[in-house]
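Notebook B, p. 112. Complex prediction, attempt 2.
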Amino acid sequence: MSTKEIPYKIYLEESEMPEAWYNVRADMVNKPAPLLDPATLQPITEDALAQVFCRELAKQELDDTTAYIPIPQPVRDFYRMYRPAPLVRAYCLEKELGTPAHIYYKFEGNNTSGSHKLNSAIAQAYYAKEQGLKGVTTETGAGQWGTALSMASAYLGLDCQVYMVKVSYEQKPFRREVMRTYGATVTPSPSMTTEVGRRINGEFPGTNGSLGCAISEAVEAAANQEGYRYVLGSVLNQVLLHQSIIGLETKAALDKYDITPDIIIGCAGGGSNLGGLISPFVGQKLRGEADMRIIAVEPASCPSLTRGKYVYDFCDTGKVCPLQKMYTLGSGFMPSSSHAGGLRYHGMSSVVSQLYHDGLIEATSVEQTGVFAAAVQFAKVEGILPAPESSHAIRVAIDEALKCKQTGEAKNIVFGLTGTGYFDMYAYQRFNDGQMGDYIPTDEEIAASLAKIPKV
Amino acid sequence: MSTKEIPYKIYLEESEMPEAWYNVRADMVNKPAPLLDPATLQPITEDALAQVFCRELAKQELDDTTAYIPIPQPVRDFYRMYRPAPLVRAYCLEKELGTPAHIYYKFEGNNTSGSHKLNSAIAQAYYAKEQGLKGVTTETGAGQWGTALSMASAYLGLDCQVYMVKVSYEQKPFRREVMRTYGATVTPSPSMTTEVGRRINGEFPGTNGSLGCAISEAVEAAANQEGYRYVLGSVLNQVLLHQSIIGLETKAALDKYDITPDIIIGCAGGGSNLGGLISPFVGQKLRGEADMRIIAVEPASCPSLTRGKYVYDFCDTGKVCPLQKMYTLGSGFMPSSSHAGGLRYHGMSSVVSQLYHDGLIEATSVEQTGVFAAAVQFAKVEGILPAPESSHAIRVAIDEALKCKQTGEAKNIVFGLTGTGYFDMYAYQRFNDGQMGDYIPTDEEIAASLAKIPKV
């Protein structure tokens, strides 16, 4: 334990910021299974991937041997605009809970995208620009990723086209407006502007949309425009690589004060935040240098790790993307319209899936009313109104801290506070008015969805 | 000029944070004129003021001789949750403008209230709690102040009742919801719950409300409840005192890198941000230790400094508050429903008014379409979507930096970025859609309003 007095916020100096991303796959004994080409069902080649993604990103996607990949200088310059993100000691929350535990959170919300998504958005936009592309297409659920990509594209002078899950488009008009302010075009998905959108609208009239649908539309839109590529904000290996900046900074801040984490907690939708936060710590575990509990928290309404199957599945509803081996509820799974839009994805990053499969991390699921109760408790004492997604991690961090209160243990609990809830006030209103419910899919619903996963 | 390399963001260490507020009135040769009791038109006593405000705040309001007033430890602890605020070197904006000027901004938006208002909210709530009060009442225009007070009250366990200018209440339902999340009661003003509200609704049917009305209602509500006091987020001497933390931190950050400011720019509504930012620098000017230009920026739609009169006037529409000598457009002035709600106030802090009257600071007014153009330009390169209020300062900072481009001067320009625009997306939408106009009151309109100011 540290003997130095720990400040409320640990900021790294700019000179202490990481200069390379960490690729946890290099240290994994069991590598994530390869992506499969949807046409051949064979492992996809870099050339085939480069038809969908930028060339450099296709390379990063397939590289499971290089441990450290240098962050290009222009990306590091952009990072300095909003990073390093503080590692905050939650002194007030500890006092409120009366726990002997020491609680820390890595706060990624202090930028206009409101989340960690900007870390990968600027990297992906940079490689697109370097390749001489005109623009990028993408999907967004809760809106953080779309906002992040809009910001990165505006900064670099790239065109940005966002397919936004219809329910979010309607519930979050102001999110859409932030993207428009940064010059992006925003289309509610499923739309009638793509073939796959028209097909899904035909099959599910009046659908609220899903991330899986929006991905299919964005991929099609990129394929149909000269000088465009598709980019994705989560799930992919490349995204987890970029997001490792979260974990690297967290580890550097902890090391600066000789703090050894006992438990690390992150919310898990597609896995971008969780994977980024835990990478360097998982690396320590894999190399036998340290040990700690790592907990992935997912919503009870969309429990891919805790109730899904570890198999090959499609990443998108339209089945145009490569197949991935992952914990999945089936690409046709339509999660309830919960308020944590960023966690409503049927699958999980293949890196996180493999780590979970190998017992290197745990997983748990929580219900949204409990999540919002934790969010409000946290907001009142820590002064930050958290995003619903991030609040899944808060819920479990509080629960673990309360266990420490029972046992008297002064554990070091670290969680990822991925973002702010300023565009989620409709959800908070539902909660404040006592109108929020919980939705947990039945075993039958999940079994029916799992049954539709193709045999590969 | 500094020889050290200047980082993108200058953060003070917690140990370097100010331990006392600076009271610029102590150094002013011409003190601000005293507040007058509305009943007697004589200078108000501390006892009379303490009927409206907390005792300690009444004392601070009248103290024009103590230069440094210690910040209570619990307030300093709260400050450490979201402060120090960074002083940011706007490298990207400089590059975008191609200016030799060095541009710095003090960013106060990294907290859930989204602005500097929290600096005074926690101080005022603390003194209310210390006095054993049950709760506080207040008004809010744009909503930042109401949010800040809700947060501070939740932290200390005080009841918080907010009268929110009706047009903001309707345009910003999510702001209201943040306050409710922090446990506050929010009432649109003018309401039918107070006598003054009913009177104003009767006189101006269908009125959108104004800060002046909402103040009157909040004062009445406090007077009618045992254990309640009224608190105000701007204009008052006590508020500028608390907000001096902005200027003190800014000066400490500049000093750390041997940077001498040539121009300091702040937006000015009631004067809380401007007064706080400039206080230590005005102190230097008053003591003959340094000189620099200081520019107050107000909206052309509500130009109290540039087109108002320097006379005694009421602070509120209902005429229940003490009278103050200030630059004013008349307490009956109804500004157009511009999108910078935080600047729609008919008067100006008496400290700022006196400094302007004595030629220690300049003032200028800008139109809102130009302000939003500056906001979007800034957002795209600096990554922060600014509040409309703050963007008034950005407009003038950009204009001054462009003048430097003409003259080739590498001036140090410092401006206050008071907050973020995440709850102002309706305004951005109007701007993005080309539907935003400018409104400048005619000479006749202003003359008519000025004519109604009482002779004291």
